User: What shape does this take?
Amino acid sequence: MSASPSAFDRAYDELRARWPDPAGTRDVDTPYGPTRVYVHGPADGSPLVLLPGGSATGLVWYANAPALGRRYRVHAVDLLGDAGRTERRGVPLKGADDLTAWLDALLDGLGLTRTHLCGHSYGAWLAARYALHAPRRVDRLALVDPTQVFAGFRPGYLLRALPSMIRPSEARARAFLAWETGGRPLDETWQRVHALADTVPGRKLIAGGRPRAAGLRMPVLVLLAEHSRTHDAAKVAEKARAVLPRAEVTMLPGATHHSLPLAGPEKLNEHLIHFLG
Assistant: This one.
């Protein structure tokens, strides 16, 4: 007899129903296990791979996919090692190099020799690392409130996050989200997914050092949340411009780190579409 679905699985399936029609789901084989990818947009559209932040799952892009899918073939990914429907099987996940090798295999499985790449938060850190690892496969790179790319975390942010890291629970994760977003309204189903992700057995997010962003040679867009409590957005913008003088660096007014990419998706979509061309 199969086990009953967990609270996380029930919330995830509910959020899955938000993915725009026609809904496309792919489980792509990689040496690290099958990777869940949600697809939307014309089959002949320019490919755009979306990497979420930690605990967010690829479904967090559901509010962005309808607009982006008018022009691009969107591929939203459940990250290896995180909660979601990507499974860890086969080659063990040990370090950041495994993540770039996994993305190589994923793009191969999707048939993408070259793609636009966009990541938020932890996904932006991974996107930057991958763009340095395989620059010929990345056409344009978009980093949405990236963490551990141009600056570290604020100590106060880490202190606030500590209780839910040491003793994960839905209540602690919700309290942390409410603090970081300043009580901004967030989609209730997504909040449950995010808050329950820390309780998923076997979840293993791989950390690593800052990528050498100065080595990025493709066009880069950096979108920063004006009121992010993860870091000082103004200082991150200054560092990003110093490291990548040709990059587009833009502030998203009123946004916080964890309210992205769901809250106010129109403005984020507008910047992305303009940048990707």
User: Anything to note?
Assistant: The two ends are 51 Å apart (CA to CA). The chain has a mean pLDDT of 95. The beta strands are 24-28, 35-40, 46-51, 72-77, 115-120, 138-144, 220-225, 248-252. The CA atoms of residues 33 and 107 lie 14 Å apart.
